[in-house]
Amino acid sequence: MSSVTFLLLCIYAYIEFSFAKNKIIKLQSKRKSASNPVYYGLFSLSTSVLLSFLTVLFFIYFENITRNIGIFLWGLCVIFLIIMNFKSRRYINPKFKPQKPIEQVMEYIFVTAGGICIAVTAIILLSVVFEAMHFFSKVPLIEFLAGTSWDPDKTIPGATHEGSFGSIPVFLGTILITIISLVIAVPLGLMSAIYLNEYASSRFRNIVKPALEMLAGIPTIIYGYFAALFVGPFIRDISASFGLNIASESAISAGIVMGVMIVPYVLSLSDDVLHSIPMNLRDASAALGATKAESITKVVLPAAFSGLVGSILLAVSRAIGETMIVVMAAGVQANLTFNPFAPVTTVTVQIVSLLMGEQEFGSVQTLAAFALAFMLFIITLGLNLCALIVAKKHRALYEY
Amino acid sequence: MSIKKRHFFATTFKITGLLSIVISLSFLVILISALAINGYNVLKRAEITLDVLFEKNLVTQDNYNLILNKAIYKIAENTEQEELITEILSEAAEDILSLMVKNNKELIDQTFTVKLPLKNDIDSAIQHNKIPEKYQNIVALLRHKNLLDINFNSALFLNTDSTEPENAGLAGAIVGSLYTMFICMLVAFPLGVATAVYLEEFAKKNTFTTLIEININNLASVPSIVYGLLGLAIFLNFFELPRSSSISGGLTLGIMITPIIVVTSRNALKAVPKSIKEAVRALGATNMQILFHHTLPVALPGILTGSILGLSRAIGETAPLIMIGMVAFISDIPSSFLDSTSVLPVQIYLWANNPNSAFTDRTAAAILVLLAILIMLNISAIILRKKYEKKF
């Protein structure tokens, strides 16, 4: 009901707009108007329809109170339209200057939109912090940070809350999978970036770079599917032929696929960094008789070191926050181990599994998910800030 | 080191670089080909043609079992064949018939030629020519009578999700994705572009704005699961929007991609040359006129590209939507923004976790659909950028 009214109001607004614009254009034959006709149209539109829009919004928001008085809505809207129409009609004449008030209102709209966005970002921060604090009031911080047993459903006799929430094995799982993915991604990404930057012709670069960046655009659920259905069984079969007994859910299958996912990030960031090193360094090194490879390893890479560290930090923060690959390929069992062939769980998997169960919202389990998300947020924030500082230092050295 | 060793190192270094590019590209090739090989089988399925009379009294009794049996009786030559045909027909056959009547009431008391799918294991056996002995005769007989053929699996695109893999389709997921993306862009695009304009043009440069910039830049790289938790805490718990609906999913994804749109729009606005703005100001234009008539048209390709990239990121996101409860089995196409719905990546996740291996094959086909949509989006982004780009 109210959506139909809304639509009709929009159509009426457009009619008002064109009506006022045409009236001014006609009146311009007698005396030149003070502003562009469009502004008159906007003025007439906004004044006549504003109150009615507000009434419709009021009715939509308080749907439960005003459900049965839809006729009242129509009546109010029509009354407001008629009143505002009569009041604003006097203003549509060449002497009136609507440009300044209209532009002032537009500026307010932009400021409000910026304010809304900023408020939303603040709310994001606050809600995660709030729920995490709620959790830490139930489970002491020390037990969360230093405990080694993660079992949300275990009932401990004599404890104040259900389950044990020692997060060290969970974070260790994240670190293990991240290290495996970096072992794959950093050499591949870095060497590819070096080749693309130093050795490749521009035609080669124009074809290969977009192709590799396609890897970054693939949704992570596809990598997760690939890890769960191809890489996991593949590793299990290969290990069986060696006599070992590896489950199909292991840290290494998730780590390999995550490494493939991060390669484009490392590649494009390193490419930007290497591109920013000025040519005169390479030319000077060549003038002293170094081969191209020696110039790269002894001059360019040390010069680009801080920028490369920044790009690796950003890749790490991407890997830490990755959910779908590990949900599908790694396990949910919290294992305190450095063995890459064991099933481990990560922070993101635990967040998903804690919230998939049918727990009510305020229970310790759901709050534990918020606490984990809070830790994840802080760690990603820290890594991004470090990467920012390192990148600034690099830029200061090379003045760009 | 001798010259020879240095040259050897130089050549090996170059080859390592090329090799790493080849390995990375081969990952892409392996991924796509594994998906194509697994998904290709799903594009066809075996179907039996039956003439079905939708008798009025049986329809009102909801006794589609008897309707089906009568249709089978017409084509079978003896009771043994009837039993075999009933065995190989899909268990979803009755649901298909009842859905046909529900959609088209005129079928009652009419005879209609229907193509019904077979059970999934028989279907794959027929396509790979490894039919079990028990059914070999009946299959040969039906083929001989031209009643059994292998057609394009239109159910994959026209049906909604179902418990039987041969009848399961992506229609509900695709429509749900469309609704969710609509709400997402409705929230993120105006908010993101307006914020970028505000930060770039109107905000004074003090520590507060620097803090906001750092905040928004960081939010662009926060893991997506945090946004899912946010959606859970705010939209489901505080605002009490319906769980698993496209409005809560769209709002969550909208908040997730707003920082991305802000960052890319800011870069696009920064790239507008200052000389244009100063020149127009010298001619007496107001701030708003400079913005709308000169800055935004020049920055528009960058802004559009950023929004399309944000949209393609949102289409593939699964984790935030799992957090707000979109993991239920939904077998209808959503009719409003408040209905429970599923989206394409979550449907992929559900099918991939299904123990039935037929569903995991269909997952590969669904992934190919998702990739096709993403490729179309990215190509349109590139075309838009090339069309509206202005070089300075």
Quick overview:
The complex is a heterodimer of chains A (400) and B (392). Chain A is 75% helix and 1% strand.
How would you describe the overall organization of this protein?
The complex is a heterodimer of chains A (400) and B (392). With 400 residues, chain A is mainly alpha-helical. Chain A is 75% helix and 1% strand. Chain A has a two-stranded antiparallel sheet with strand order 1-2. In chain A, helix 1 (2-27) runs antiparallel to helix 2 (37-61), helix 6 crosses helix 12 and helix 8 (220-241) crosses helix 9 (251-276). The radius of gyration of chain A is 31 Å and the shape is extended. Chain B is mainly alpha-helical. Chain B has 17 helices and 3 strands. A 3-stranded antiparallel beta sheet of chain B has the order 2-1-3. In chain B, helix 14 (287-315) packs antiparallel against helix 17 (357-388). The two termini of chain B are 50 Å apart. The relative contact order of chain B is 0.11.
Describe the strand arrangement of the main beta sheet of chain A, using strand numbers.
Answer: 1-2
Q: Radius of gyration of chain B, rounded?
A: 29 Å
Distance linking N and C termini of chain B: 50 Å
> Which residues of chain B sit in consecutive blocks of at least 5 with pLDDT less than 50?
none
Kindly estimate the percentage of residues of chain B that lie in beta strands according to DSSP.
Answer: 5-15%
Largest sheet of chain B: 3 strands, antiparallel
Low-confidence stretches of chain A: none
SSE class of chain B:
mainly alpha
Gross geometry of chain A: extended
Number of helices, counting only DSSP H or I runs of 4 residues or more of chain A: 15
Pattern of helices and strands of chain A:
HHHHHEEHHHHHHHHHH
**Mean residue pLDDT of chain A:** 84
Distance between the termini of chain A: 58 Å
